[in-house]
Design a protein that fits this description.
454 residues; alpha+beta; Ubiquitin-like (UB roll); Creatine Kinase, Chain A, domain 2; 8-stranded mixed sheet; 6-stranded mixed sheet
Length: 454
């Protein structure tokens, strides 16, 4: 493994134009917090000299500290060391000011992982699978909308377009190559930035919403690295579109009457000899995969707050919108929550299709891997697969409101076991406070509907 000094020397020699360093710490919502430093501070970052307060993990999406977490004034808003994530020192090519970036994770002063950092939460779950002799192989798919950088007269949004000369595409137009061509210069710049930052993007496609796109990432045998790639990709996408006067949003449901945006995760397990433990010649799951699906189905409701963390998340959850509303599974069926894609025997895997685009990738992956471990160790059975329309079975529905989701999360023995009771309380406290603050607002729509009643 390269030494810290050799990494720094190699980077500064390869990027002599670098003048600034963005130090990035993803919070509970995967919003990037941190500081911009001069590039000569790089050595101090690698030796533990960079610190941020633990309250970075007690923030709502507006950046307000939720004091009920105990990480604000009760903790003295104390700083904690933040150490570099291996391989995350990269150039930021869409910025012309000579900017580099590095991702960090938070530790306690004694060097132990800080309980509130989602990257550490995921790492602990991976250790559970390692104890069984398995390494997760993980790939994620992320959807987003491109919108105009300016809000409408009434505060709404509209699809963003690079040029007014491109013809409007009527209807949903999923997989439309014309829509790819319309944004071709920007998509090409995103692809180049991904190459520079070692983000393994494999494909981009036009989704069914107006200005909606999806980027697929190549699978890697390192769950934390797979999520690091998502963090980098989201910054690349937002940064490059912003450079061109447009805005990319990872809201789960930006338009009321259009499809929502999701994050799908594909997982298989590798044995020590690197063979796929889920492999089977038949599309039907082998015993291990069957138990994994059983655990994912059984734990799905308890984990819903992680998959749908904002008020807007629950507006995405509607039947027959390619958003699962029940813990169903099936073979080559995009309507179910847990899909076994039609692929070769050695690529056999499960695709988890529940989470929105607003999910924290570390927490999504932690919940999915925990569900797999739970199913394997308890030998849980998933029941029969769903064929055809997956929305016809409403015997067991997932939480479709934040009230039910946060209550289920708070009371879950599964969450406490795998994610830790301290993290369980932290996440539930921040979500409940944010939901209540949002619910206390009076919208213009309420005046439109109710001002004249009575």
């Amino acid at each position: 493994m390269p030494t810290k000094s050799s990494v720094i020397d190699a980077f500064t020699k390869a990027h002599p134009q670098a003048r600034f360093l963005d130090v990035l710490l993803p919070d509970l919502a995967a919003t990037l917090r941190g500081k911009r430093l001069r590039i000569d501070a790089l050595g101090s970052v690698y030796t533990g000299g960079f610190r941020l307060p633990g309250s970075m993990f007690a923030l709502d999406v507006r950046g307000n500290t939720i004091e009920a977490t105990g990480l604000g004034f009760d903790d003295g808003d104390a700083d904690r060391p933040c150490l570099p994530v291996e391989g995350s020192l990269v150039d930021v090519p869409w910025m012309s000011e000579g900017v580099a970036q590095i991702q960090v994770s938070m530790t306690e002063p004694d060097g132990l992982p800080f309980f509130g950092d989602p990257r550490h939460v995921l790492a602990r779950v991976v250790e559970h699978l390692a104890a069984l002799g398995f390494t997760p192989m993980v790939a994620l798919e992320i959807e987003f909308y491109v919108v105009d950088g300016r809000r409408t007269e009434h505060g709404g949004i509209r699809p963003g377009r690079l040029t007014g000369d491109a013809p409007e595409q009527p209807g949903k137009q999923v997989n439309s190559m014309a829509r790819i061509e319309e944004l071709s210069p920007i998509l090409a710049e995103i692809s180049r930035a991904c190459e520079i930052q070692s983000v393994p993007a494999t494909s981009t496609l036009a989704e069914s919403g107006p200005g909606q796109y999806e980027v697929n990432l190549r699978h890697v045998a390192d769950a934390c690295l797979a999520c690091d790639h998502v963090i980098r990709l989201r910054r690349i996408v937002q940064g490059v579109f912003l450079k061109h006067g447009l805005r990319a949003t990872f809201m789960a449901k930006p338009y009321a009457e259009q499809p929502g945006s999701g994050t799908h995760i594909h997982v298989s397990l590798l044995r020590p000899d690197a063979s796929n433990a889920f492999a089977s010649e038949s599309l039907e799951p082998n015993e291990l995969l069957r138990h994994a699906i059983g655990g994912l189905a059984r734990s799905m409701a308890d984990s819903m707050l992680l998959f749908a963390p904002t008020v807007n998340s629950y507006k995405r959850i509607r039947p027959e919108c390619y958003v699962p509303v029940a813990p169903t599974w099936g073979l080559n069926n995009r309507g179910v929550a847990l899909r076994i894609p039609a692929d070769s025997a050695q690529n056999r895997r499960v695709e988890h299709r529940v989470a929105g685009a607003d999910v924290n990738p570390y927490l999504l992956t932690a919940a999915v891997l925990a569900g797999i471990h739970h199913g394997i160790t308890e030998r849980l059975e998933p029941g029969p697969p769903v064929s055809g329309n997956a929305y016809g079975d409403d015997t067991v529905l997932l939480p479709s409101s934040w009230e039910r989701a946060v209550s289920g999360f708070e009371d879950s023995a599964f969450v406490a076991k795998y994610l830790g009771s301290n993290f369980q309380r932290l996440f539930a406290t921040t979500r409940r406070a944010e939901f209540r603050a949002f619910s206390n607002q009076i919208s213009s729509l309420e005046y439109d509907w109710y001002l004249g009643t009575g």
